[in-house]
Design goal:
Elements lengths: L2 E5 L6 H10 L8 E5 L3 H18 L4 E5 L2 H5 L4 E4 L5 H14 L11 H25 L4 E4 L4 H10 L4 E3 L3 H13 L6 E8 L2 E9 L2 E2 L1 H12 L30 H10 L7 H4 L10 H7 L6 H5 L4 H13 L8 H10 L3 E8 L12 E9 L2 E4 L7 H23 L3 H8 L2 H6 L2 H14 L15
Parallel strand pairs: 1-2, 1-4, 2-3, 4-5, 5-6
Antiparallel strand pairs: 7-8, 8-9, 10-11, 11-12
Helix pairs in contact: 1-2, 1-14, 2-13, 4-5, 4-18, 5-6, 5-15, 6-15, 8-9, 15-16, 16-18
Length: 455
């Protein structure tokens, strides 16, 4: 019987989705699931839903609910992290302050000012979690779902914690590409590697057939004609095999298709989100509207969340328990039952991709079985793809160094090197923006990260 601790269990919908995935595997239904959050009301909301789900199906699953992290971590076999330190109050600052300086982030949780500051807020919690795990569950596997994925996992690896970072961008994008080409998804085989939200589809095959030429031509035909909106799957009849494009994924792909045209390979995050990590697409409001006509703003979406969404998901899970595309529960099941699977995981780069910096966080295929998570060595990326990744890794490295060294200068350095910020602002404006963010977020930041005075 496994003990699974979920840290940040008071989040909206996603923790319930993870529990539903766990319970979808009969072999995991005798587990203990420890739900932990620092917000009592949010934790109670998730706990009620989970207990109702377990009772409805009549499972023997033991549900624990606690505000004490150490209680949740005691003797845990798996630790799932899914939190946002500072919540919507801090997130609002991540997006609104940079926007006043001309940095428009569609999401702001992975790179740039928003990603760096979300990481800095989270770092103190990760330092405490790592210390607790070394004491209370030294052999546990930490499954990280919190963004910014690469920075968080890089820090955890440096702290000596057995960690895999999990995202759904590889699954979602591979589904979308198969649907765009009208190829059944269960016939597709691919290799994706790079960094989180910027991994490259190095191979994309149907049996022994290389689909890359067809993929490139299909995406060019549908998304690179700037005189008309991107064509969605419903415009092409019944070729989607059940997949439906949205304006987030598949419906507006001019950015990713243009990146593919320039660098040779398609990568794994939506055009909205991917446009934040590069210097080419968001220099002005007019440019944003040109490349992505239908705006998608994740902060605005988050402010609209309400309990109805949780109730809707609960009713779905009562009707049918089926694993989602998320890897977390599949990994736990694989290890517990010694059932081999392959997942895309974010792990420490130990010669897995030699032309990316040693020790950074990379996203590569990982074999999982009773022996745990075993990352595979992919080899060198195409040099142009590795070069694009390194522009993002520079930012990640300096943010991690800011925490490990306590040197607040590295916060300024990280954002100075962010591709979008550097393409939009002068060094003086970047300094002013970073100082304003540091001042506004002192409540959640490590005490030694105070704004610098610049003359």
């Amino acid at each position: 019987m496994a003990k699974i601790a979920i840290i940040g269990a008071g989040g909206f919908i996603f923790p319930l989705r993870l529990v539903g995935d766990i319970l979808a595997f009969p072999e995991l239904r005798d587990s203990t699931i420890a739900l932990m959050d620092i917000h009592a009301g949010n934790l109670e909301r998730t706990t009620r839903a989970v207990q109702e789900l377990v009772a409805h199906h009549g499972f023997a699953t033991r549900i624990e609910s606690t505000l004490e992290r150490k209680e949740a971590l005691q003797d845990a076999d798996y630790v799932i992290v899914t939190f946002q330190v500072g919540g919507l109050e801090a997130y609002k600052l991540d997006v609104e302050i940079p926007r006043q300086y001309g940095i428009d982030q569609a999401v702001g949780d992975t790179l740039g000012p928003g990603g760096v500051f979300r990481f800095l807020r989270s770092a103190s919690a990760y330092l405490e979690i790592a210390a607790d795990m070394r004491e209370l569950c030294p052999n546990a596997l930490l499954l990280n779902y919190a963004n910014p994925m690469a920075m968080n996992c890089w820090l955890l690896a440096r702290l000596g914690i057995d960690t895999i970072g999990l995202c759904h961008s590889v699954q979602n994008t591979s589904q979308m590409l198969a649907a765009q080409m009208g190829v059944p998804y269960d016939e597709v085989r691919f290799v994706a590697a790079g960094i989180n939200h910027q991994a490259w589809f190095l191979e994309f095959k149907q049996g022994g057939l290389d689909l890359q030429p067809r993929l490139r031509q299909t995406m060019r035909d549908r998304h690179l004609d700037a005189s008309k909106p991107s064509k969605m799957l419903q415009d092409f009849g019944d070729h989607s095999h059940g997949y439906q494009d949205s304006n987030y994924e598949g419906g507006q792909e001019r950015v990713r298709t243009q990146v593919m045209d320039a660098f040779g390979y398609f990568h794994t995050e939506s055009s909205h989100h991917a446009s934040e990590y590069l210097p080419y697409f968001r220099k002005s409001a007019e440019m944003v509207s040109d490349f992505i006509p239908n705006r998608w703003d994740y902060y605005a979406i988050c402010t609209q969340h309400n309990d109805a969404g949780i109730q809707d998901l609960l009713e779905q899970l009562k009707t049918k328990l089926k694993p989602s595309l998320e890897y977390g529960a599949r990994i736990i099941h694989s290890i517990q039952t010694n059932t081999p699977i392959v997942v895309s995981g974010n792990v420490e780069n130990r010669n897995l991709i030699p032309n990316l910096p040693e020790g950074c966080c990379v996203e590569v295929p990982c074999l999982v079985d009773g022996n745990g998570v075993q990352p595979t060595a992919v080899g060198n990326l195409p040099p142009q793809c590795a070069a694009v990744n390194r522009t993002n890794i520079n930012v990640q490295e300096l943010a991690v160094q800011a925490i490990l060294s306590g040197n607040v200068e590295h916060v300024y350095h990280a954002i100075m090197l962010d591709p979008l910020t550097a393409a939009t602002l002068t060094l003086e404006r970047i300094r002013a923006m970073v100082s304003e963010l540091l001042t506004a977020q002192q409540t959640w930041l490590p005490a030694n990260l105070s704004p610098l005075e610049h003359t």
